[in-house]
Amino acid sequence: MDILKLISTSLEQGEDERVRDLVLEAIAQEIAPAEILNAGLIAGMNVVGEKFRLREIFLPEVLLAARAMYAGMEPLKPLLVQEGIPVLGKVVIGSVRGDLHDIGKNLVGIMLRGAGFEVVDLGTDVHPERFVDAALAEQAPVIGMSALLTTTMPAMKEVVELIRARGLQGRIKTIIGGAAVSAEYAGAIGADAYAFDAAKAVQRVKEMIL
Amino acid sequence: MREIVHFPVDAALPAAEEVLASQGMPGRPALPEKIAALLDEALQLCAQLAEPRGIMADISRQDFAAVYDGEGLNAAETPLPAIAERADALALFAATLGEPVSARIGDLFQADEPALGFMLDAVASLGADRLADLMGRRFLEILSAEAGGCTPATVLPYSPGYCGWHITAQRKLFEFLRPGEIGITLNSSCLMQPLKSVSGVLVAGKGEIHRFRPKFSFCADCKTHECVQRMASVRGG
User: Fold this and answer.
1) What does DSSP say about strands A142-146 and A90-95: parallel, antiparallel, or unpaired?
2) First CA to last CA across chain A, in angstroms?
3) Of A51, A156, B86, B143, whose CA is between 20 and 30 Å from A178?
4) How many domains is chain A partitioned into structurally?
5) Whole-structure pTM value
6) Between B42 and A56, where is the model more confident?
7) Which residues of chain B neighbour A98 with C-beta distances below 8 Å?
């Protein structure tokens, strides 16, 4: 089995140390960093994502694979930066103002990273201005917002309105999720997309920017 | 009556099978080895970090009606007023697993240990739910002692944020109960800290008072329909 396939299958198994060792070996074999990333790590995460979508594996297994992906990215990242390899896209995420829940938001971040996106995680209790300022500063075309409470979901609308007020619609798109919100709510506030779960969020972000 | 209760950690820990079921995972025999190991580690961590405690205070129907109304944002029709009206006794409660568990969950995600963080979150969420039941049991004991051993049939907890009871009612609940005494605070969004906390009202009475037809306006948006299981749990009470 070639080393990229080995990286991919080891990642599927969540074998983080093995993945890191294999990536180091691939680097030593002078395989292009972009190829290690795409044909090794991302290919493995894509299989994991598909198995999860088909309910063949459970979320903790996806997260173990994500940890293996991080382990593989560690030695690879400086080389990707050095060679100016562009990431798939950048996404700013956060739990909205007043909301301290972050499990759902964290899962979205992990799945996005696993799919090859760069994620700027603003954390919890993020004010509307901070979302927009960060998207501009990071040149991120997508803002992902999470809310678990009916009391905090109106902050999502504020972000959408702020984007419009600054004339950034079309340039910065929004996706929302979390227990409190729905596709109907996304439509009502003018968000560009809604995702029921982390796997759907990745799919929607891909549809929005690729 | 106003009482602070400290629970043994074991009492607040959910069973492994319960955690798996809550995540839609199969029981131990069919569970991948790595997930079983994660679950064991999460249960162990929760046992080390949890500081389960609660506070309860009895409340009259009249005072509860004011707490329930909160800031006037409840759904137009909700089941709880009629349930409370027929209750033998009511008590407001809040309970928490404490800050260290919530903090560790965040730390695990930060440290790129999301699988364990996720599993610990699942364990702690069920642990917090379990605290509501433990508070209910303690309320039953108190009522039983007061009534010379004659115990109401059931106690069920109801919480703001569910069944049309708007979460902003937390503010009045907190004003009345003052759970800051056990370290639970409310932020401007009515979110409790530590995150793994529960609050609400304990309703004691015959099992039949808890039954209602889940046909309210908000039932269509409900993602859990837990009321059906809750009502089944008190059938014949």
Assistant:
1) parallel
2) 31
3) A51
4) 2
5) 0.84
6) B42
7) 187-189, 191
Those of residues 112-141 in A touching chain B at CB distance below 8 A are none
> Tens digits of per-residue pLDDT, B50-59?
999 999 999 9
Q: Is A186 exposed, middle or buried (0-12, 13-18, 19+ CB in 10 A)?
A: buried
Q: How confident is the model at residue B237 (pLDDT cuts 50, 70, 90)?
A: very low
List of chain B residues whose C-beta atoms are within 8 Å of the C-beta of residue A70: 112
> Same structural domain for residues A14 and A70?
yes
Which of B102, B104, B112 to mutate to test binding with chain A, by most A CBs within 10 Å of its CB? B112
From CA B90, how far away is CA B64, in angstroms rounded?
Answer: 8
SS3 A172: strand
Boundary-marking domain end, from A83, A106, A128: A83
Q: Which domain holds residue A24?
A: 3-83
Cβ distance of A152 and B189 shorter than 8 Å: yes
Contact list, A151 vs chain B (CB under 8 Å): 167-168, 189-191
Answer yes or no: do B112 and A70 touch at CB < 8 A.
Answer: yes
The CB-based long-range contact list for A70-73 (8 Å cut-off, 24+ gap) reads: A70/A16, A70/A113, A70/B112, A71/A16, A71/A17, A71/A19, A71/A20, A72/A7, A72/A11, A72/A16, A72/A19, A72/A20, A72/A22, A72/A23, A72/A36, A72/A40, A72/A41, A73/A37, A73/A41
> Averaged over B82-105, what is the pLDDT?
95
* A170 interface with B at CB cutoff 8 Å: no
A118 and A59 in a single domain? The answer is no
Out of A65, A83, A101, a domain closes at: A83
What is the predicted pLDDT for the residue at B152?
A: 67
Residues A171-185: tens digit of each pLDDT: 999 999 998 788 999
Is A95 in the B-facing interface, judged by CB distances under 8 Å?
A: no
- Asked if A197 has any chain B CB less than 8 Å from its own CB, the reply is no
Residue A132 belongs to domain with CATH number? 3.40.50.280
CB atoms within 10 A of CB A115: 21
Query: Looking at chain A, which residue has its C-alpha nearest residue B36?
Result: A60
d(Cα A3, Cα A25) in Å, to the nearest integer? 8
User: A183 CB near a chain B CB, below 8 Å?
Assistant: no
Provide the 8-state DSSP code for A36.
I
Task: Please check whether residues A9 and A54 belong to one and the same domain.
Answer: yes
ipTM of this predicted structure: 0.78
**Token match 């642990």: residue?**
B127
Q: Are A11 and A22 a contacting pair, CB within 8 Å?
A: no
Give yes or no: residues A27 and A112 share one domain. no
